[in-house]
Amino acid sequence: MTSIDHKAFFINGAWRAAESTGHFDVISPRSEQSIGGAPAASKTDLDAAVAAARHAFGFKKSGLGRKHGPDAVQEYLLTKTISIDPGEVLPESVTRNVPRSTRPGVPSSRLSSAPGPSAPPLRYPSTMENPMHTRHPEIDPHLLSETEEQRELRGVLRSLFAEASGPDAVRKHAATPRGYDEALWARLAGEIGVHGLAIPEEYGGSGFTFAELAVALQESGRALYCAPLLPTVILAVHALLNSGDRDACARFLPRIADGTLTATVAGFQDDEPAVTAERSGPGWVLRGATDFVLDGAGAELILVRAQTTDGIRLFAYEPTADGCLRAPHRVLDETRRQARVEFSGAAATPVGQSGDVTATLDAGRAALAAEQVGGSGHALDATAQFVTERHQFGRPIGSFQAVKHRLADLLVALEAARSASAYATACVALASPQLSVAASAAAAVCSETFHLATAEYVQLHGGIGFTWEHPAHLYVRRARSAEVLFGTADQHRTRLAGLIGLTSRSAA
Length: 508
Fold this sequence. Notes:
It is a single chain. The protein is built from 14 helices and 16 strands. The chain is α+β, with helices and mostly antiparallel strands. Strands 8, 9, 10, 11, 12, 13 and 14 form a seven-stranded mixed beta sheet that branches. It has a five-stranded mixed beta sheet with strand order 5-4-3-7-6, with no helix packed on it. It is globular.
């Protein structure tokens, strides 16, 4: 057992030594050996740490100690002040208490007999069993913060959307044959360069990253921008880039970047594609149908995932009058159109050699999460403004504690969603191996936050929030549609469980 005689607590920006010599065991999950100890706080240590926590977090009335009790505070502090041998790296963020009874097969002789209070040992999960676990974060924390250029881009886009994509404009353009403002689409592509932000310069783009594109997605979600930004600029672009087909990229990406080509994808979420591709002379033809294709009725390019005799591949189809029937659906969210696409001998061109679209779908999930964060931000801001203006019983309704609590809960949820979205965005930008985990986590968190935000948007606006004339219902429709677009929150949690190696256990 390592002697615990060094500094133990980080208080008010400085380390201070623990007065107690007692400690708890820290057990290695690989060897089941005790590899170090967590110092047991003395009363002086505990009082100083609790005072620092109250000062830092503003626990003036229901302070940490009074709310949870000294034992809970000490347990919390111990999980944050672990001491171990130099050869064993233990991230503080993954420590947790495990009772001795839950560690079968560990002889009592392996447990330290050092003096100190009796408490369960501290143990951290093994990261060797599953490659999705990492002991050190691969994402530089600085990448999670907004740069000055991104703030400027956000300001420009917010002003533009406020001018050209308000609620009345959204209603107007959603009812047109194409479903969006084509003049605004051209401005976004030409004047600001949104469409080409994440497209390499060699293909006519700006050569930035997904991080800059996520800013545009947040602002488009905040304004409920009704254009095929998600299927064209996210799904189709990433499908082409991930395919590794330079000829296809050179053919289509410059036209997407300059706003002259809209595109979408089909069959990407099917385990076994319903569309088949077969050879016809020197080329290929597609047969079968795929449903709920984003902008399927109007897109000028459809990237189709189809089954061939040699496996699943990706094909590019440019709609013509022959060989394809596109039937638009009447959907809940009229700002995001969907359609059924049926192929009957439609000529198509193969793209790349693989039909794996996992990375593309994860990029779509991260993009949708950014949109949802933007929409949630609008719902919170609009509601907070309304409750300060609406008076009842001679005072603003926002001054009532019940309303304050609901908005505070929403703010907490929104900040969690921002964090999840920012991490997923960074993973897409860096092509991190953690992308699948980050994308599903962001999808689950941001979907539920947007659902909550739009519900409060309606409820806290009272009677007016239920009217057709108020824009709240437009955001409700977007939230309900988006939360099932790439899988429900429950489906993403199930996926996460598989990715991080969790196994289901019976209720008993």
